[in-house]
């Protein structure tokens, strides 16, 4: 029994260690220059007619459809099923996507400036370098990849970008907002537990009442951010640029944050 102890211990460690979240790391396996990822199978006018047709299923089911590059600015896609759809570089400025299902959708470099995505579902959605300035994602469920996206002055009130602990067999599914520009964004009341916010710009963002336990804030810029009642237990603050002492004192569990001694102070 003594000989087996090290092996059992190693097995437990390997089982508990976070596995690669393959649904969030698909870029290395997909040819983004292929026609399937760059072209649309329908025109904007044809899609508009389809959505308005009396016989069209309400809300419409556009799952898996190729819509990349289309100008869908102002379109009403409320509640539409866009699971697995291709919307790379599509223009969705001011579009209505309340309650829309965007799980596993491809929206790389899509323009959603001012779009309404309240209570939308963004599970494993690929949104790298997307534009969401002024967009409203309040109440949305987000475990997608928004690396390099711009979300200045956006609203994520009550949004949930925390890890989905029910799908650990698929890896750590969580919101990835790495190097994302969230300057001036309102994230009050959001669940950001275990969310990846490395090198994100959170200057002047409202993080009041946020759950940021175990969040990765390494290198993030928190200058001027509101932290009233924000829970920072086990949040990684290595090389993060912190707000004033007075502001930081308004957060909870600051003493339990990781690498606080390696954080930086704003000049």
Per-chain topology:
Elements: H1 4-16, H2 35-38, H3 44-52, E1 121-122, E2 141-142, E3 241-242, H4 245-248, E4 264-265
Parallel strand pairs: 1-2, 3-4
If you had to describe this structure to a student in words, what would you say it looks like?
The protein is low in regular secondary structure. It has a domain at about 20-195: Pectate Lyase C-like, CATH 2.160.20.80. Helices cover about 10% and strands about 5% of the residues. The chain is built from four helices and four strands. It has helices spanning about 5-15, 35-40, 45-50, 245-250; strands spanning about 120, 140, 240, 265. Strands 1-2 form a two-stranded parallel ribbon. Strands 3-4 form a two-stranded parallel ribbon. It is elongated and about 60 Å long. The N and C termini lie far apart (about 60 Å). Mean pLDDT is about 90; it is low at about 1-25.
């Amino acid at each position: 029994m003594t000989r087996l102890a090290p092996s059992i211990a190693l097995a437990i460690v390997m089982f508990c260690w976070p596995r690669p979240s393959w649904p969030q790391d698909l870029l290395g396996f997909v040819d983004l220059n292929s026609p399937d990822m760059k072209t649309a199978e329908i025109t904007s006018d044809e899609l508009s007619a389809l959505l308005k047709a009396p016989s069209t299923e309400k809300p419409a089911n556009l799952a898996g459809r190729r819509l990349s590059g289309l100008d869908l600015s102002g379109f009403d896609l409320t509640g539409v099923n866009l699971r697995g759809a291709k919307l790379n570089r599509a223009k969705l400025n001011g579009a209505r996507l309340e309650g829309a299902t965007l799980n596993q959708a491809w929206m790389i470099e899509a323009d959603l400036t001012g779009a309404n995505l309240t209570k939308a579902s963004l599970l494993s959605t690929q949104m790298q370098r997307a534009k969401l300035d002024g967009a409203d994602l309040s109440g949305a469920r987000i475990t997608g990849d928004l690396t390099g996206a711009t979300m200045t002055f956006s609203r994520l009130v009550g949004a949930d970008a925390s890890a989905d602990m029910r799908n650990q067999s698929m890896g750590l599914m969580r919101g990835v907002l790495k190097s994302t520009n969230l300057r001036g964004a309102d994230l009050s009341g959001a669940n950001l537990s275990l969310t990846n916010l490395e090198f994100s710009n959170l200057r002047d963002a409202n993080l009041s009442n946020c759950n940021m336990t175990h969040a990765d804030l390494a290198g993030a810029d928190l200058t001027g951010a509101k932290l009233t009642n924000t829970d920072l237990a086990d949040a990684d603050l290595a090389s993060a640029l912190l707000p004033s002492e007075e502001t930081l004192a308004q957060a909870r569990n600051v003493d339990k944050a990781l690498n606080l001694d390696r954080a930086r102070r704003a000049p």
